[in-house]
Amino acid sequence: MSVSEAVSLGMPEVRNVFPRKKTRKVRLGNLWVGGDAPVTVQSMCTTKTTDIGGTLQQIAELTAAGCDIVRVACPSADDAEALPIIAKKSNIPVIADIHFQPRYVFAAIEGGCAGVRVNPGNIRKFDDQIEDIVKAARDHGTSLRIGVNAGSLHPKLYKKYGGATPEAMVESAVWEASLFEQYDFHDFAISVKHHDPVTMIKTYELLSSKGDWPLHLGVTEAGPALQGTVKSATAFGALLRQGIGDTIRVSLSAPPVEEVKVGVEILQSLGLRDRTLEIVSCPSCGRAQVDVYTLANAVTEGLKDLKVPLRVAVMGCVVNGPGEAREADLGVASGNQKGKIFIKGKVVETVPETDIVPTLIRYANKLAEDMPEGEGEGVQVLV
Protein backbone atom coordinates (compact mmCIF):
# COMPACT_ATOMS: atom_id res chain seq x y z
CA MET A 1 0.00 0.00 0.00
CA SER A 2 1.34 3.44 -0.89
CA VAL A 3 1.32 6.40 1.47
CA SER A 4 -1.45 8.04 -0.54
CA GLU A 5 -3.59 4.91 -0.13
CA ALA A 6 -2.89 4.56 3.59
CA VAL A 7 -5.85 4.03 5.88
CA SER A 8 -5.99 6.47 8.80
CA LEU A 9 -6.58 4.79 12.17
CA GLY A 10 -6.43 8.01 14.17
CA MET A 11 -3.61 9.61 16.18
CA PRO A 12 -4.79 10.84 19.61
CA GLU A 13 -2.92 13.68 21.27
CA VAL A 14 -1.60 12.72 24.70
CA ARG A 15 0.04 15.32 26.95
CA ASN A 16 0.32 15.03 30.72
CA VAL A 17 1.80 18.10 32.36
CA PHE A 18 1.52 18.61 36.11
CA PRO A 19 1.06 22.12 37.55
CA ARG A 20 4.29 23.37 39.10
CA LYS A 21 4.42 24.96 42.51
CA LYS A 22 5.45 28.60 42.21
CA THR A 23 9.00 28.97 43.48
CA ARG A 24 11.51 31.77 43.31
CA LYS A 25 13.48 31.99 40.10
CA VAL A 26 17.27 31.75 40.41
CA ARG A 27 19.75 32.35 37.65
CA LEU A 28 22.44 29.74 37.09
CA GLY A 29 24.76 30.80 34.30
CA ASN A 30 22.64 30.94 31.15
CA LEU A 31 19.73 29.05 32.74
CA TRP A 32 16.94 29.79 35.15
CA VAL A 33 16.07 27.35 37.92
CA GLY A 34 12.68 27.59 39.60
CA GLY A 35 9.61 29.63 38.76
CA ASP A 36 8.27 28.74 35.34
CA ALA A 37 11.65 27.50 34.07
CA PRO A 38 11.82 23.87 32.86
CA VAL A 39 12.90 21.24 35.38
CA THR A 40 16.59 20.65 34.73
CA VAL A 41 18.75 17.54 34.95
CA GLN A 42 22.06 17.58 36.80
CA SER A 43 24.93 15.18 37.29
CA MET A 44 28.41 15.26 38.77
CA CYS A 45 31.75 14.55 37.16
CA THR A 46 33.66 11.52 38.37
CA THR A 47 36.98 12.86 37.09
CA LYS A 48 39.55 14.61 39.22
CA THR A 49 38.89 18.32 38.78
CA THR A 50 42.62 18.87 38.42
CA ASP A 51 42.39 16.79 35.23
CA ILE A 52 41.01 19.69 33.24
CA GLY A 53 40.99 17.90 29.88
CA GLY A 54 39.34 14.78 31.26
CA THR A 55 36.76 16.81 33.16
CA LEU A 56 35.84 18.89 30.11
CA GLN A 57 35.57 15.71 28.03
CA GLN A 58 33.18 14.19 30.55
CA ILE A 59 31.15 17.41 30.68
CA ALA A 60 30.83 17.24 26.88
CA GLU A 61 29.59 13.63 27.12
CA LEU A 62 27.09 14.58 29.80
CA THR A 63 25.87 17.52 27.75
CA ALA A 64 25.32 15.29 24.72
CA ALA A 65 23.28 12.91 26.91
CA GLY A 66 20.95 15.74 27.98
CA CYS A 67 22.60 17.13 31.11
CA ASP A 68 21.73 20.77 31.80
CA ILE A 69 23.94 21.51 34.82
CA VAL A 70 27.12 19.79 36.00
CA ARG A 71 28.81 19.66 39.39
CA VAL A 72 32.54 19.18 39.96
CA ALA A 73 34.31 18.31 43.20
CA CYS A 74 36.63 20.80 44.85
CA PRO A 75 38.35 19.16 47.83
CA SER A 76 41.78 20.79 47.37
CA ALA A 77 43.57 23.98 46.40
CA ASP A 78 44.67 22.39 43.13
CA ASP A 79 41.04 21.65 42.26
CA ALA A 80 40.11 25.25 43.05
CA GLU A 81 42.82 26.48 40.68
CA ALA A 82 41.31 24.42 37.85
CA LEU A 83 37.79 25.82 38.26
CA PRO A 84 38.18 29.04 36.19
CA ILE A 85 39.24 27.13 33.07
CA ILE A 86 36.55 24.49 33.44
CA ALA A 87 33.83 27.06 34.13
CA LYS A 88 34.87 29.12 31.11
CA LYS A 89 35.10 26.25 28.63
CA SER A 90 32.06 24.24 29.71
CA ASN A 91 28.97 24.60 27.51
CA ILE A 92 26.66 24.12 30.50
CA PRO A 93 26.67 25.81 33.93
CA VAL A 94 29.27 24.46 36.35
CA ILE A 95 28.61 24.12 40.07
CA ALA A 96 31.53 23.69 42.46
CA ASP A 97 30.92 21.15 45.21
CA ILE A 98 32.44 22.41 48.47
CA HIS A 99 32.93 20.59 51.77
CA PHE A 100 35.01 21.38 54.86
CA GLN A 101 36.96 24.43 53.61
CA PRO A 102 35.09 27.76 53.30
CA ARG A 103 37.98 29.34 51.39
CA TYR A 104 37.11 27.17 48.40
CA VAL A 105 33.63 28.72 48.33
CA PHE A 106 35.24 32.07 47.59
CA ALA A 107 37.65 30.50 45.09
CA ALA A 108 34.74 28.97 43.16
CA ILE A 109 32.78 32.22 43.14
CA GLU A 110 35.75 34.26 42.01
CA GLY A 111 36.68 31.54 39.49
CA GLY A 112 33.49 32.10 37.50
CA CYS A 113 31.44 29.05 38.51
CA ALA A 114 27.74 29.54 37.84
CA GLY A 115 26.93 28.15 41.26
CA VAL A 116 28.40 26.73 44.42
CA ARG A 117 26.97 23.84 46.40
CA VAL A 118 27.65 24.25 50.10
CA ASN A 119 26.99 21.69 52.81
CA PRO A 120 26.80 23.72 56.04
CA GLY A 121 27.09 20.58 58.14
CA ASN A 122 30.46 19.81 56.53
CA ILE A 123 31.99 23.28 56.30
CA ARG A 124 33.89 24.49 59.32
CA LYS A 125 33.15 28.08 60.41
CA PHE A 126 30.39 28.35 57.82
CA ASP A 127 27.71 30.33 59.65
CA ASP A 128 30.05 33.12 60.73
CA GLN A 129 31.16 33.75 57.12
CA ILE A 130 27.70 34.08 55.56
CA GLU A 131 27.93 37.85 55.13
CA ASP A 132 31.21 37.58 53.23
CA ILE A 133 29.86 34.73 51.08
CA VAL A 134 26.77 36.79 50.27
CA LYS A 135 28.85 39.77 49.22
CA ALA A 136 31.10 37.68 46.97
CA ALA A 137 28.16 35.81 45.40
CA ARG A 138 26.24 39.03 44.79
CA ASP A 139 29.27 40.77 43.26
CA HIS A 140 29.89 37.88 40.84
CA GLY A 141 26.27 36.96 40.06
CA THR A 142 26.75 33.48 41.53
CA SER A 143 23.93 31.39 42.93
CA LEU A 144 24.23 28.87 45.73
CA ARG A 145 22.70 25.56 46.72
CA ILE A 146 22.31 24.79 50.38
CA GLY A 147 22.73 21.03 50.58
CA VAL A 148 21.41 19.33 53.70
CA ASN A 149 22.17 15.61 53.91
CA ALA A 150 21.08 13.08 56.50
CA GLY A 151 24.70 12.06 56.98
CA SER A 152 25.92 15.55 57.90
CA LEU A 153 23.07 16.77 60.08
CA HIS A 154 24.10 18.72 63.19
CA PRO A 155 24.36 16.48 66.29
CA LYS A 156 21.96 18.75 68.18
CA LEU A 157 19.24 18.07 65.64
CA TYR A 158 19.94 14.35 65.73
CA LYS A 159 19.44 14.44 69.47
CA LYS A 160 16.38 16.68 69.34
CA TYR A 161 14.51 14.53 66.80
CA GLY A 162 16.06 11.16 67.47
CA GLY A 163 17.59 10.85 64.00
CA ALA A 164 17.62 12.35 60.51
CA THR A 165 13.85 12.78 60.37
CA PRO A 166 12.06 15.03 57.87
CA GLU A 167 11.48 17.55 60.66
CA ALA A 168 15.17 17.59 61.61
CA MET A 169 16.37 18.09 58.05
CA VAL A 170 13.81 20.79 57.30
CA GLU A 171 14.67 22.68 60.48
CA SER A 172 18.32 22.61 59.41
CA ALA A 173 17.53 23.81 55.89
CA VAL A 174 15.21 26.62 57.01
CA TRP A 175 17.77 27.81 59.55
CA GLU A 176 20.57 27.92 57.00
CA ALA A 177 18.32 29.70 54.51
CA SER A 178 17.50 32.35 57.09
CA LEU A 179 21.20 33.13 57.52
CA PHE A 180 21.34 34.23 53.87
CA GLU A 181 17.95 35.89 53.87
CA GLN A 182 18.91 38.18 56.77
CA TYR A 183 21.24 39.87 54.27
CA ASP A 184 18.48 40.02 51.65
CA PHE A 185 20.19 37.33 49.57
CA HIS A 186 17.78 34.95 47.85
CA ASP A 187 19.77 33.51 44.93
CA PHE A 188 19.91 29.96 46.24
CA ALA A 189 18.18 26.62 45.97
CA ILE A 190 17.89 23.99 48.68
CA SER A 191 18.27 20.22 48.73
CA VAL A 192 17.36 17.90 51.62
CA LYS A 193 18.54 14.49 50.46
CA HIS A 194 18.03 11.16 52.15
CA HIS A 195 18.78 7.60 51.05
CA ASP A 196 15.27 6.38 51.88
CA PRO A 197 12.70 7.47 49.25
CA VAL A 198 9.79 7.63 51.72
CA THR A 199 11.73 9.86 54.13
CA MET A 200 13.01 11.93 51.24
CA ILE A 201 9.48 12.51 49.88
CA LYS A 202 8.14 13.56 53.29
CA THR A 203 11.11 15.89 53.80
CA TYR A 204 10.65 17.73 50.51
CA GLU A 205 6.89 17.98 51.03
CA LEU A 206 7.46 19.57 54.42
CA LEU A 207 10.17 21.92 53.13
CA SER A 208 8.00 22.96 50.18
CA SER A 209 5.26 24.01 52.60
CA LYS A 210 7.67 26.31 54.46
CA GLY A 211 8.72 28.64 51.66
CA ASP A 212 9.18 29.34 47.95
CA TRP A 213 12.81 28.27 47.60
CA PRO A 214 13.72 26.43 44.37
CA LEU A 215 14.24 22.78 45.29
CA HIS A 216 16.89 20.38 44.02
CA LEU A 217 15.58 16.81 44.23
CA GLY A 218 17.79 13.85 44.98
CA VAL A 219 17.81 10.47 46.68
CA THR A 220 21.34 10.42 48.01
CA GLU A 221 23.36 7.20 47.98
CA ALA A 222 20.56 5.59 45.99
CA GLY A 223 22.68 2.56 45.11
CA PRO A 224 23.57 0.57 41.97
CA ALA A 225 21.92 1.33 38.64
CA LEU A 226 18.71 -0.71 38.98
CA GLN A 227 18.05 0.02 42.64
CA GLY A 228 18.98 3.68 42.31
CA THR A 229 16.82 4.14 39.23
CA VAL A 230 13.78 2.66 40.95
CA LYS A 231 14.31 4.71 44.11
CA SER A 232 14.81 7.95 42.19
CA ALA A 233 11.91 7.41 39.80
CA THR A 234 9.60 6.59 42.69
CA ALA A 235 10.57 9.62 44.76
CA PHE A 236 10.78 12.11 41.89
CA GLY A 237 7.48 10.98 40.43
CA ALA A 238 5.70 11.40 43.76
CA LEU A 239 7.07 14.91 44.22
CA LEU A 240 6.92 16.21 40.65
CA ARG A 241 3.30 15.03 40.49
CA GLN A 242 2.65 17.58 43.25
CA GLY A 243 4.58 20.28 41.41
CA ILE A 244 7.49 20.01 43.84
CA GLY A 245 10.99 20.11 42.34
CA ASP A 246 12.88 22.46 40.03
CA THR A 247 16.03 20.50 39.24
CA ILE A 248 16.97 16.85 39.77
CA ARG A 249 19.96 14.59 40.08
CA VAL A 250 19.72 10.81 39.88
CA SER A 251 22.52 9.51 42.13
CA LEU A 252 23.70 6.12 40.89
CA SER A 253 26.71 3.92 41.51
CA ALA A 254 27.20 4.04 37.75
CA PRO A 255 28.80 6.29 35.13
CA PRO A 256 27.31 9.81 35.31
CA VAL A 257 26.01 9.58 31.74
CA GLU A 258 23.67 6.85 33.00
CA GLU A 259 22.41 9.24 35.69
CA VAL A 260 21.55 11.77 33.03
CA LYS A 261 19.79 9.23 30.83
CA VAL A 262 17.60 8.13 33.73
CA GLY A 263 16.87 11.74 34.73
CA VAL A 264 15.86 12.69 31.22
CA GLU A 265 13.64 9.62 30.91
CA ILE A 266 11.90 10.45 34.19
CA LEU A 267 11.10 13.98 33.07
CA GLN A 268 9.99 12.86 29.62
CA SER A 269 7.72 10.19 31.07
CA LEU A 270 6.00 12.84 33.22
CA GLY A 271 5.61 15.25 30.32
CA LEU A 272 8.00 17.71 31.97
CA ARG A 273 10.61 17.63 29.22
CA ASP A 274 10.27 17.53 25.46
CA ARG A 275 10.71 13.94 24.45
CA THR A 276 13.40 12.78 22.06
CA LEU A 277 13.45 9.25 20.67
CA GLU A 278 11.13 6.91 22.56
CA ILE A 279 10.79 3.20 21.88
CA VAL A 280 7.43 1.72 22.86
CA SER A 281 7.63 -2.08 22.88
CA CYS A 282 5.51 -4.80 24.41
CA PRO A 283 6.90 -7.10 27.12
CA SER A 284 6.07 -10.13 24.96
CA CYS A 285 3.86 -13.00 25.99
CA GLY A 286 2.52 -16.29 24.67
CA ARG A 287 0.61 -14.42 21.96
CA ALA A 288 3.74 -12.96 20.39
CA GLN A 289 4.42 -14.18 16.87
CA VAL A 290 7.86 -12.60 16.62
CA ASP A 291 10.91 -12.38 18.87
CA VAL A 292 9.99 -9.04 20.43
CA TYR A 293 13.12 -8.80 22.59
CA THR A 294 15.45 -9.11 19.63
CA LEU A 295 13.29 -6.91 17.43
CA ALA A 296 13.04 -4.07 19.98
CA ASN A 297 16.76 -4.20 20.76
CA ALA A 298 17.66 -4.11 17.07
CA VAL A 299 15.41 -1.09 16.45
CA THR A 300 16.80 0.69 19.52
CA GLU A 301 20.37 0.09 18.38
CA GLY A 302 19.59 1.19 14.83
CA LEU A 303 18.04 4.49 16.00
CA LYS A 304 20.34 5.27 18.94
CA ASP A 305 21.86 8.31 17.25
CA LEU A 306 18.53 10.04 16.52
CA LYS A 307 17.97 13.08 18.73
CA VAL A 308 14.51 14.02 17.48
CA PRO A 309 11.17 13.57 19.26
CA LEU A 310 9.99 10.36 17.61
CA ARG A 311 7.88 7.71 19.31
CA VAL A 312 8.48 4.33 17.66
CA ALA A 313 6.28 1.37 18.61
CA VAL A 314 7.51 -2.22 18.22
CA MET A 315 4.62 -4.61 18.88
CA GLY A 316 4.62 -8.39 18.71
CA CYS A 317 1.04 -9.47 18.04
CA VAL A 318 -2.36 -8.42 16.70
CA VAL A 319 -4.12 -7.99 20.07
CA ASN A 320 -2.66 -4.67 21.26
CA GLY A 321 -0.22 -4.11 18.41
CA PRO A 322 -2.32 -2.10 15.95
CA GLY A 323 -3.62 0.20 18.68
CA GLU A 324 -0.22 0.93 20.15
CA ALA A 325 1.38 1.33 16.74
CA ARG A 326 -1.17 3.87 15.55
CA GLU A 327 -0.61 6.05 18.62
CA ALA A 328 3.07 6.33 17.80
CA ASP A 329 4.75 8.48 15.17
CA LEU A 330 6.06 5.31 13.60
CA GLY A 331 5.41 1.71 14.48
CA VAL A 332 5.02 -1.90 13.50
CA ALA A 333 2.38 -4.47 14.44
CA SER A 334 3.82 -7.92 13.81
CA GLY A 335 2.18 -11.27 13.09
CA ASN A 336 2.21 -14.21 10.70
CA GLN A 337 5.85 -13.50 9.80
CA LYS A 338 4.92 -10.03 8.56
CA GLY A 339 4.87 -6.52 9.90
CA LYS A 340 2.39 -3.73 9.21
CA ILE A 341 4.25 -0.41 9.26
CA PHE A 342 2.30 2.58 10.58
CA ILE A 343 3.14 6.29 10.25
CA LYS A 344 1.00 8.58 12.43
CA GLY A 345 -1.87 6.13 12.42
CA LYS A 346 -1.68 5.13 8.76
CA VAL A 347 -0.64 1.75 7.41
CA VAL A 348 1.98 2.59 4.80
CA GLU A 349 3.55 -0.77 4.10
CA THR A 350 3.44 -4.48 4.94
CA VAL A 351 6.83 -6.16 4.94
CA PRO A 352 8.27 -9.61 5.70
CA GLU A 353 9.51 -10.10 9.26
CA THR A 354 13.13 -10.02 8.06
CA ASP A 355 12.61 -6.51 6.66
CA ILE A 356 10.94 -4.92 9.70
CA VAL A 357 14.07 -3.43 11.28
CA PRO A 358 15.61 -1.86 8.15
CA THR A 359 12.18 -0.57 7.09
CA LEU A 360 11.56 1.12 10.45
CA ILE A 361 15.04 2.65 10.42
CA ARG A 362 14.49 3.96 6.90
CA TYR A 363 11.17 5.57 7.77
CA ALA A 364 12.51 6.97 11.06
CA ASN A 365 15.41 8.68 9.32
CA LYS A 366 13.06 10.11 6.71
CA LEU A 367 10.71 11.46 9.39
CA ALA A 368 13.69 12.97 11.22
CA GLU A 369 14.86 14.71 8.03
CA ASP A 370 11.41 16.17 7.45
CA MET A 371 11.01 17.42 11.02
CA PRO A 372 10.99 21.23 11.39
CA GLU A 373 14.33 22.62 12.53
CA GLY A 374 14.56 23.10 16.30
CA GLU A 375 11.77 20.68 17.14
CA GLY A 376 12.61 18.41 20.05
CA GLU A 377 15.47 20.51 21.37
CA GLY A 378 15.97 20.63 25.11
CA VAL A 379 16.04 23.31 27.78
CA GLN A 380 15.61 26.89 26.62
CA VAL A 381 18.51 29.12 27.56
CA LEU A 382 18.35 32.65 28.90
CA VAL A 383 18.65 35.38 26.27
From TrEMBL:
Its cofactor is [4Fe-4S] cluster. It catalyses: (2E)-4-hydroxy-3-methylbut-2-enyl diphosphate + oxidized [flavodoxin] + H2O + 2 H(+) = 2-C-methyl-D-erythritol 2,4-cyclic diphosphate + reduced [flavodoxin]. [4Fe-4S] cluster binds at residues 282, 285, 317, 324. InterPro entries: Dihydropteroate_synth-like_sf, IspG_bac, IspG_bac-typ, IspG_C, IspG_TIM, NO2/SO3_Rdtase_4Fe4S_sf. It comes from Winkia neuii BV029A5. The keyword Cytoplasm does not apply. Keywords: 4Fe-4S, Iron, Iron-sulfur, Isoprene biosynthesis, Metal-binding, Oxidoreductase. Binds 1 [4Fe-4S] cluster. The keyword Iron applies. NCBIfam families: ispG_gcpE, PRK00366.1. Signal peptide: none annotated. Pathway: Isoprenoid biosynthesis; isopentenyl diphosphate biosynthesis via DXP pathway; isopentenyl diphosphate from 1-deoxy-D-xylulose 5-phosphate: step 5/6. Gene3D superfamilies: Dihydropteroate synthase-like, Sulfite Reductase Hemoprotein, domain 1. Residues 278-364 form the IspG C-terminal domain. HAMAP family: IspG. It comes from the Bacteria. One of its GO terms (molecular function) is 4-hydroxy-3-methylbut-2-en-1-yl diphosphate synthase activity (ferredoxin). Belongs to the IspG family. GO terms for biological process: isopentenyl diphosphate biosynthetic process, methylerythritol 4-phosphate pathway; terpenoid biosynthetic process. Its EC number is 1.17.7.3. This is 4-hydroxy-3-methylbut-2-en-1-yl diphosphate synthase (flavodoxin). Residues 23-263 form the IspG TIM-barrel domain. Converts 2C-methyl-D-erythritol 2,4-cyclodiphosphate (ME-2,4cPP) into 1-hydroxy-2-methyl-2-(E)-butenyl 4-diphosphate.
